[in-house]
């Protein structure tokens, strides 16, 4: 596959706003920016408190709040392109057909650097997403997306951080044409009131590392982008040293929106 | 730089280069607390462009939870990581009109700099400070400098008039007949003020506290249900579209 792998630092999906908000804290020029997940139709997201702090992390039930593909293409994508960012559009769909539609339309939109297929939402069924708990289904989504998206641009597959099945998931997605797998996603959790949610933050760093280690030892050639618990230079280096090609910064940006720039600079110097 | 008690609350003065020149009433800062992944949003209560310590800003915290207690107990000289000023500020009337400002407890903090701006524009400002008891009120004395009159309400009647904002706001709006009403407080207080203002046809802006972990608009965690200019119901981010919003745009029943 000739598509370039982004990195070494990327903005994780759902943690950079629309880009404008992050842009207030530093130039997005040449930044690999993963958007929050975009669906075909607009979604207003979850009701009630959406993010709750727990020791070591955040539990969120944002519920894929996004304006839908049309609005994204009309307003958010052009802004990102103009700001000089490399937009990687995260996509989520309720069927293989929807994923294919999203990929096709985004392949024609000017400035899309790549796609990230959201295959690890902690609660697909509750949110009406295509069910990808079986690695086979995750692979078929990637295949459907890859068919519609130019081969010279990367398609990342963001998987559920389930160490017991992550190797099968990664193998399937890479065989189906994913440029790299992103490990991992929010860990399935519950809000204090019992609503389905996902845990992120420093608390999940060791889960992400475990997924990375499992995949790297079973599939030494797999290209992996690590995501989970990156909060400073040391935690980013730990994942890169364990074999990740790139890292994504997520929840830590909510505390320090300049972190992605700091890390980019430090890691570029390393190279 | 300095910390002092205001009733049961604590007012912190922080050295904050770059903040006063960009500050507008209704802005807030997001503060990082050690060991916490989520930030805390605090209203900016006052700014000074120059003091013995350079540019400063004041915030008010109530030692309630573990995090706010930590913040309130920090000795002078503690270094804090914060981002600000953030959020959409209060919109000011172009004409010198009568304004009613209603705030409860520590939530009233952003109304003080607002009152000063309004006075500079020649507006006749009436400030209502409400609280559970005397100790819950921010300094009425300080406010008297910039407003025409201050009305104090306490739930227990320990000072001022006995009663809550909900009980008195209709009368207050009727009596003062303001062109603009501004409110800062818990959601039920804001809703009561919004209803009263709407009933008299006054413009109303409310400073809403929608809890969220970042304050910068990055996470979509602070959902605020509103009705758009086009009459379409939407969910927006409280920190970027707010925290100050037009009261008639808020879908109060969906909050």
Map the helices and strands.
The complex is a heterodimer of chains A (271) and B (255).
Chain A: E1 9-11, H1 20-23, E2 32-34, E3 51-54, E4 57-60, H2 68-82, E5 86-91, H3 96-108, E6 114-119, H4 124-127, H5 135-148, E7 155-159, H6 166-175, E8 180-183, E9 187-190, E10 196-200, H7 205-218, E11 224-227, H8 233-241, E12 246-249, H9 252-255, H10 259-270
Parallel strand pairs in A: 1-2, 1-12, 2-5, 5-6, 6-7, 7-8, 8-11, 11-12
Antiparallel strand pairs in A: 3-4, 4-10, 9-10
Helix pairs in contact in A: 3-5, 5-6, 6-7
Chain B: E1 2-6, E2 9-15, H1 19-22, E3 28-32, E4 40-43, E5 46-48, E6 56-61, H2 66-72, E7 81-86, E8 98-104, H3 111-120, E9 124-131, H4 140-144, E10 149-154, E11 161-162, H5 165-176, E12 180-184, H6 187-200, E13 203-207, E14 223-227, E15 233-237, E16 244-246
Parallel strand pairs in B: 8-9, 8-12, 9-10, 10-11, 12-13
Antiparallel strand pairs in B: 1-2, 2-6, 3-4, 3-7, 5-6, 13-16, 14-15
What characteristics describe this protein?
heterodimer; A: 271 residues; alpha/beta; 4-stranded antiparallel β-sheet; 10 helices; globular; B: 255 residues; 7-stranded mixed β-sheet; 6 helices; 32% strand
Approximate shape of chain B: globular
Helix content of chain A: 25-40%
Strand order of the largest sheet of chain B: 11-10-9-8-12-13-16
Q: What's the arrangement of strands in the largest beta sheet of chain A? A: 1-2-5-6-7-8-11-12
Structural class of chain A: alpha/beta
> Cα distance, first to last residue of chain B?
37 Å
Largest sheet of chain A: 8 strands, parallel, barrel
Proportion of beta-strand residues of chain A: 15-25%
Summed up, the helix count of chain A is 10
Oligomer: heterodimer
State mean pLDDT of chain A (0 to 100 scale).
94
> Can you write the helix and strand succession of chain B as a string?
EEHEEEEHEEHEHEEHEHEEEE
- Work out the radius of gyration of chain A: 17 Å
Tell me, briefly, the overall form of chain A: globular
* Rounded radius of gyration of chain B (Å): 17 Å
């Amino acid at each position: 596959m000739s598509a370039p792998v982004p990195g070494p630092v990327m903005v994780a999906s759902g943690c950079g706003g629309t880009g404008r908000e992050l842009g207030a804290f530093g130039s997005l020029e040449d930044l690999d920016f993963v958007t929050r997940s975009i669906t075909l139709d607009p979604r207003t997201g979850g009701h009630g408190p959406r993010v709750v702090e727990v020791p070591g992390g955040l539990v969120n039930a944002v519920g894929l709040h996004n304006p839908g593909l049309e609005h994204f293409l009309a307003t958010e994508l052009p802004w990102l392109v103009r700001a000089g960012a490399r937009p990687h559009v995260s996509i989520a769909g309720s069927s293989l057909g929807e994923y294919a539609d999203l990929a096709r339309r985004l392949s024609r939109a000017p400035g899309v650097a790549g796609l990230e297929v959201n295959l690890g939402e902690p609660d697909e069924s509750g949110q009406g997403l295509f069910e990808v708990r079986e690695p086979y289904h995750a692979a078929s989504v990637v295949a459907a997306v890859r068919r519609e998206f130019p081969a010279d641009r990367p398609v990342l597959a963001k998987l559920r951080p389930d160490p017991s099945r992550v190797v099968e998931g990664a193998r399937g997605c890479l065989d189906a044409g994913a440029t790299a797998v992103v490990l991992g996603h929010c860990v399935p959790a519950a809000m204090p009131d019992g609503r389905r949610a996902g845990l992120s933050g420093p608390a999940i760093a060791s889960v992400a590392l475990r997924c990375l280690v499992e995949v790297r030892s079973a599939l030494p050639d797999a290209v992996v982008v690590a995501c989970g618990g990156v909060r400073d230079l040391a935690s980013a280096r730990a994942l890169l040293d364990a074999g990740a090609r790139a890292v994504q910064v997520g929840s830590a940006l909510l505390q320090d929106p300049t972190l992605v720039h700091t890390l980019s600079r430090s890691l570029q110097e390393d190279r | 730089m300095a910390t002092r008690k205001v009733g049961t609350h604590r007012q912190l003065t922080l050295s904050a280069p770059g903040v006063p020149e960009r500050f507008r009433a209704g802005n807030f800062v997001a503060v990082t607390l050690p060991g916490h992944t989520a930030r805390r949003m605090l209203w900016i209560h006052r700014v000074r462009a120059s003091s013995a310590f350079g540019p400063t800003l004041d915030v008010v915290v109530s030692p309630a939870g573990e995090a706010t207690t930590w913040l309130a107990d920090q000795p002078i000289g503690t270094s804090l990581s914060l981002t600000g000023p953030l959020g959409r500020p209060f919109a000011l009337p172009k004409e010198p009109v009568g304004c009613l400002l209603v705030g409860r407890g520590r939530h009233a903090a952003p109304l003080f700099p607002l009152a000063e701006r309004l006075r500079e524009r020649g507006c006749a400002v009436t400030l209502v400070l409400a609280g559970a008891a005397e100790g819950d009120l921010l300094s009425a004395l300080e406010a008297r400098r910039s407003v025409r009159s201050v009305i104090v309400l306490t739930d227990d009647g320990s000072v001022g008039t006995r009663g809550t904002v909900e009980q008195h706001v209709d009368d207050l709006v009727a009596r003062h007949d303001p062109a603009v009403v501004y409110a800062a407080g818990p959601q039920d207080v804001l809703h009561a003020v919004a209803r009263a203002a709407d009933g008299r046809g006054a413009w109303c802006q409310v400073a809403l506290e929608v809890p969220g972990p970042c304050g910068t608009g990055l996470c979509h965690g602070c959902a605020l249900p509103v009705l758009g200019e086009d009459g379409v119901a939407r969910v927006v981010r409280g920190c970027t579209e707010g925290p100050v919003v037009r009261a008639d745009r808020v879908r109060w029943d969906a909050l």
